[in-house]
User: Which sequence fits this backbone?
Protein backbone atom coordinates (compact mmCIF):
# COMPACT_ATOMS: atom_id res chain seq x y z
CA UNK A 1 0.00 0.00 0.00
CA UNK A 2 1.37 3.39 -1.05
CA UNK A 3 0.48 6.30 1.17
CA UNK A 4 0.70 10.01 0.46
CA UNK A 5 3.86 10.21 2.58
CA UNK A 6 5.56 7.54 0.46
CA UNK A 7 4.99 9.31 -2.86
CA UNK A 8 8.20 10.67 -4.41
CA UNK A 9 8.63 14.42 -4.10
CA UNK A 10 9.49 16.33 -7.26
CA UNK A 11 8.97 19.83 -8.61
CA UNK A 12 7.44 22.41 -6.31
CA UNK A 13 6.37 21.50 -2.78
CA UNK A 14 2.82 22.36 -1.66
CA UNK A 15 3.05 20.88 1.83
CA UNK A 16 2.28 24.26 3.39
CA UNK A 17 -1.07 24.63 1.58
CA UNK A 18 -3.19 23.47 4.55
CA UNK A 19 -1.13 25.66 6.87
CA UNK A 20 -1.76 28.71 4.69
CA UNK A 21 -5.50 27.97 4.58
CA UNK A 22 -5.55 27.81 8.39
CA UNK A 23 -3.60 31.06 8.69
CA UNK A 24 -5.92 32.75 6.17
CA UNK A 25 -8.91 31.84 8.32
CA UNK A 26 -7.12 33.45 11.26
CA UNK A 27 -6.40 36.56 9.18
CA UNK A 28 -2.63 36.06 9.16
CA UNK A 29 -1.85 34.67 5.71
CA UNK A 30 1.84 34.98 4.74
CA UNK A 31 2.53 37.81 2.31
CA UNK A 32 4.94 37.77 -0.60
CA UNK A 33 7.94 40.07 -0.53
CA UNK A 34 7.89 42.84 -3.13
CA UNK A 35 10.98 43.27 -5.26
CA UNK A 36 12.10 46.17 -7.45
CA UNK A 37 13.96 46.40 -10.75
CA UNK A 38 14.38 48.49 -13.90
CA UNK A 39 15.55 46.62 -17.01
CA UNK A 40 15.62 48.08 -20.53
CA UNK A 41 16.49 46.80 -24.01
CA UNK A 42 16.43 48.40 -27.46
CA UNK A 43 17.41 47.51 -31.02
CA UNK A 44 19.79 49.82 -32.84
CA UNK A 45 21.40 49.85 -36.27
CA UNK A 46 23.97 47.10 -35.69
CA UNK A 47 22.52 45.06 -32.83
CA UNK A 48 20.84 45.34 -29.43
CA UNK A 49 21.68 47.04 -26.13
CA UNK A 50 20.52 45.79 -22.73
CA UNK A 51 20.54 47.92 -19.58
CA UNK A 52 19.66 47.39 -15.92
CA UNK A 53 20.05 48.95 -12.50
CA UNK A 54 21.94 47.10 -9.76
CA UNK A 55 19.68 47.40 -6.70
CA UNK A 56 18.19 44.21 -5.23
CA UNK A 57 15.41 44.75 -2.70
CA UNK A 58 13.29 42.66 -0.37
CA UNK A 59 10.26 44.71 0.64
CA UNK A 60 11.57 48.00 2.02
CA UNK A 61 15.12 46.67 2.58
CA UNK A 62 18.00 47.08 0.11
CA UNK A 63 19.63 43.64 0.07
CA UNK A 64 22.35 44.24 -2.53
CA UNK A 65 23.66 47.44 -4.14
CA UNK A 66 25.66 45.66 -6.87
CA UNK A 67 23.28 42.96 -8.06
CA UNK A 68 24.07 41.60 -11.53
CA UNK A 69 20.80 41.61 -13.51
CA UNK A 70 22.29 41.09 -17.00
CA UNK A 71 22.91 37.36 -17.37
CA UNK A 72 25.08 35.46 -19.85
CA UNK A 73 23.12 33.03 -22.03
CA UNK A 74 25.49 32.46 -24.95
CA UNK A 75 28.41 34.39 -26.51
CA UNK A 76 25.90 36.23 -28.71
CA UNK A 77 22.88 36.19 -26.35
CA UNK A 78 22.29 37.89 -22.99
CA UNK A 79 19.20 38.34 -20.84
CA UNK A 80 17.98 40.89 -18.29
CA UNK A 81 16.09 39.52 -15.31
CA UNK A 82 13.30 41.02 -13.21
CA UNK A 83 11.57 39.34 -10.29
CA UNK A 84 13.26 36.99 -7.84
CA UNK A 85 17.03 37.30 -8.30
CA UNK A 86 17.73 33.60 -7.66
CA UNK A 87 15.03 32.48 -10.12
CA UNK A 88 16.29 34.71 -12.94
CA UNK A 89 19.92 33.75 -12.27
CA UNK A 90 19.37 29.99 -12.25
CA UNK A 91 16.98 30.11 -15.23
CA UNK A 92 19.72 31.86 -17.21
CA UNK A 93 22.36 29.38 -16.03
CA UNK A 94 20.19 26.39 -16.95
CA UNK A 95 19.52 27.78 -20.44
CA UNK A 96 23.19 28.66 -20.88
CA UNK A 97 24.34 25.12 -20.10
CA UNK A 98 21.77 23.61 -22.50
CA UNK A 99 22.85 25.94 -25.30
CA UNK A 100 26.51 25.11 -24.66
CA UNK A 101 25.76 21.41 -25.15
CA UNK A 102 23.76 22.24 -28.28
CA UNK A 103 26.70 24.22 -29.75
CA UNK A 104 29.12 21.38 -28.99
CA UNK A 105 26.79 18.87 -30.68
CA UNK A 106 26.02 20.94 -33.78
CA UNK A 107 29.09 23.14 -34.17
CA UNK A 108 26.89 26.13 -34.92
CA UNK A 109 26.22 29.46 -33.22
CA UNK A 110 23.20 29.56 -30.92
CA UNK A 111 20.09 31.28 -32.24
CA UNK A 112 18.04 33.64 -30.11
CA UNK A 113 14.79 31.77 -30.88
CA UNK A 114 16.38 28.56 -29.57
CA UNK A 115 17.08 30.21 -26.21
CA UNK A 116 13.57 31.68 -26.29
CA UNK A 117 11.98 28.25 -26.75
CA UNK A 118 14.02 26.71 -23.93
CA UNK A 119 13.13 29.47 -21.46
CA UNK A 120 9.44 29.52 -22.43
CA UNK A 121 9.09 25.75 -22.03
CA UNK A 122 10.90 25.82 -18.68
CA UNK A 123 8.73 28.63 -17.27
CA UNK A 124 5.45 27.25 -18.68
CA UNK A 125 6.23 23.83 -17.19
CA UNK A 126 6.19 25.39 -13.72
CA UNK A 127 3.05 27.47 -14.37
CA UNK A 128 4.41 30.81 -13.16
CA UNK A 129 5.83 29.55 -9.86
CA UNK A 130 9.31 30.58 -11.05
CA UNK A 131 9.28 34.35 -10.56
CA UNK A 132 11.50 35.19 -13.53
CA UNK A 133 10.50 37.87 -16.04
CA UNK A 134 13.19 38.10 -18.70
CA UNK A 135 14.18 40.33 -21.60
CA UNK A 136 16.17 38.21 -24.06
CA UNK A 137 18.41 39.92 -26.59
CA UNK A 138 20.97 38.76 -29.10
CA UNK A 139 22.35 38.79 -32.64
CA UNK A 140 22.60 35.65 -34.78
CA UNK A 141 22.67 34.65 -38.44
CA UNK A 142 19.09 35.89 -38.92
CA UNK A 143 19.72 39.37 -37.46
CA UNK A 144 19.15 41.08 -34.12
CA UNK A 145 16.24 40.08 -31.87
CA UNK A 146 14.56 41.20 -28.64
CA UNK A 147 11.98 39.12 -26.76
CA UNK A 148 10.06 39.82 -23.58
CA UNK A 149 9.24 36.66 -21.56
CA UNK A 150 6.70 36.55 -18.72
CA UNK A 151 7.02 34.23 -15.69
CA UNK A 152 4.30 31.89 -17.04
CA UNK A 153 5.99 31.42 -20.42
CA UNK A 154 4.36 33.95 -22.77
CA UNK A 155 6.54 36.13 -25.00
CA UNK A 156 6.38 38.99 -27.47
CA UNK A 157 8.85 40.58 -29.88
CA UNK A 158 9.34 44.35 -29.90
CA UNK A 159 12.04 46.81 -31.04
CA UNK A 160 12.27 48.28 -27.54
CA UNK A 161 10.98 47.08 -24.18
CA UNK A 162 11.29 47.52 -20.44
CA UNK A 163 10.23 45.59 -17.35
CA UNK A 164 10.26 45.80 -13.57
CA UNK A 165 8.82 48.20 -11.02
CA UNK A 166 10.47 51.18 -12.74
CA UNK A 167 9.28 50.23 -16.22
CA UNK A 168 6.58 52.92 -16.55
CA UNK A 169 9.09 55.74 -16.17
CA UNK A 170 11.54 54.01 -18.54
CA UNK A 171 8.82 53.38 -21.11
CA UNK A 172 8.02 57.11 -21.26
CA UNK A 173 11.64 57.81 -22.26
CA UNK A 174 11.75 55.00 -24.84
CA UNK A 175 8.46 55.94 -26.50
CA UNK A 176 9.59 59.55 -26.77
CA UNK A 177 13.11 59.11 -28.12
CA UNK A 178 13.48 55.70 -29.76
CA UNK A 179 13.65 55.54 -33.54
CA UNK A 180 14.68 52.97 -36.07
CA UNK A 181 18.36 52.45 -37.04
CA UNK A 182 19.87 54.49 -34.24
CA UNK A 183 23.66 54.74 -34.03
CA UNK A 184 25.50 52.89 -31.25
CA UNK A 185 26.43 55.93 -29.13
CA UNK A 186 22.97 57.47 -29.38
CA UNK A 187 21.30 54.17 -28.49
CA UNK A 188 23.63 53.71 -25.51
CA UNK A 189 22.70 57.14 -24.14
CA UNK A 190 19.01 56.32 -24.58
CA UNK A 191 19.36 53.08 -22.60
CA UNK A 192 21.20 54.87 -19.79
CA UNK A 193 18.58 57.64 -19.65
CA UNK A 194 15.76 55.07 -19.59
CA UNK A 195 17.34 53.20 -16.68
CA UNK A 196 17.97 56.49 -14.88
CA UNK A 197 14.29 57.35 -15.26
CA UNK A 198 13.45 54.16 -13.40
CA UNK A 199 16.08 54.84 -10.74
CA UNK A 200 14.86 58.36 -10.01
CA UNK A 201 11.15 57.47 -10.03
CA UNK A 202 11.09 54.08 -8.31
CA UNK A 203 12.33 53.31 -4.81
CA UNK A 204 12.92 49.67 -5.75
CA UNK A 205 15.50 50.66 -8.38
CA UNK A 206 18.80 52.35 -7.74
CA UNK A 207 22.59 52.20 -7.41
CA UNK A 208 24.51 52.08 -10.71
CA UNK A 209 23.77 51.15 -14.33
CA UNK A 210 24.96 48.01 -16.16
CA UNK A 211 24.80 47.69 -19.96
CA UNK A 212 25.49 44.99 -22.52
CA UNK A 213 26.08 45.85 -26.19
CA UNK A 214 25.61 42.91 -28.57
CA UNK A 215 26.67 43.21 -32.21
CA UNK A 216 27.45 40.72 -34.94
CA UNK A 217 30.43 38.67 -33.80
CA UNK A 218 30.96 40.34 -30.43
CA UNK A 219 29.30 41.27 -27.15
CA UNK A 220 30.54 43.80 -24.60
CA UNK A 221 29.22 43.90 -21.05
CA UNK A 222 30.04 46.98 -18.98
CA UNK A 223 29.36 46.98 -15.25
CA UNK A 224 28.66 50.28 -13.46
CA UNK A 225 29.00 52.37 -16.61
CA UNK A 226 27.34 55.21 -14.70
CA UNK A 227 26.35 55.90 -11.11
CA UNK A 228 23.54 58.50 -11.15
CA UNK A 229 23.08 58.42 -7.37
CA UNK A 230 26.53 58.49 -5.75
CA UNK A 231 26.69 58.22 -1.97
CA UNK A 232 27.82 61.60 -0.58
CA UNK A 233 30.75 61.60 1.85
CA UNK A 234 29.98 61.74 5.55
CA UNK A 235 30.08 65.25 6.95
CA UNK A 236 31.41 64.15 10.33
CA UNK A 237 33.42 61.32 11.84
CA UNK A 238 31.47 58.84 13.94
CA UNK A 239 34.50 57.15 15.46
CA UNK A 240 34.86 57.75 19.18
CA UNK A 241 38.10 57.42 21.10
CA UNK A 242 38.45 54.74 23.75
CA UNK A 243 37.29 56.05 27.12
CA UNK A 244 34.73 58.49 25.70
CA UNK A 245 31.96 56.57 27.46
CA UNK A 246 32.58 55.58 31.07
CA UNK A 247 32.24 51.91 32.08
CA UNK A 248 30.08 51.59 35.22
CA UNK A 249 30.34 47.84 35.71
CA UNK A 250 32.19 44.98 34.04
CA UNK A 251 31.62 41.24 34.53
CA UNK A 252 33.04 38.24 32.67
CA UNK A 253 31.34 34.83 32.70
CA UNK A 254 32.69 31.58 31.31
CA UNK A 255 29.87 30.19 29.16
CA UNK A 256 31.83 27.40 27.46
CA UNK A 257 32.51 24.06 29.13
CA UNK A 258 35.14 21.60 27.94
CA UNK A 259 34.55 17.88 28.41
CA UNK A 260 36.92 15.03 27.72
CA UNK A 261 35.97 12.90 24.70
CA UNK A 262 36.83 9.21 24.71
CA UNK A 263 38.66 7.90 21.69
CA UNK A 264 36.57 5.75 19.33
CA UNK A 265 37.41 2.06 19.26
CA UNK A 266 38.21 1.27 15.60
CA UNK A 267 39.80 -2.13 16.18
Assistant:
Amino acid sequence: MVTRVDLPKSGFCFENYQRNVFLEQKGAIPKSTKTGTTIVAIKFKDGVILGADTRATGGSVILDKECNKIHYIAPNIYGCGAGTAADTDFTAQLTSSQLELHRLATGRESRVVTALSMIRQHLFRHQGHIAAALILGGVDCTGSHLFNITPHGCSDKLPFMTNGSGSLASLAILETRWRKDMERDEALELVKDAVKAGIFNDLGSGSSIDVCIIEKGRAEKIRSIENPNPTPPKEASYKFARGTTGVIKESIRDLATVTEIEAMDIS
Notes: The chain has a mean pLDDT of 88. The helical segments are 17-25, 85-106, 112-125, 167-177, 184-201. Residues 163 and 236 are 39 Å apart (CA to CA). The radius of gyration is 25 Å.
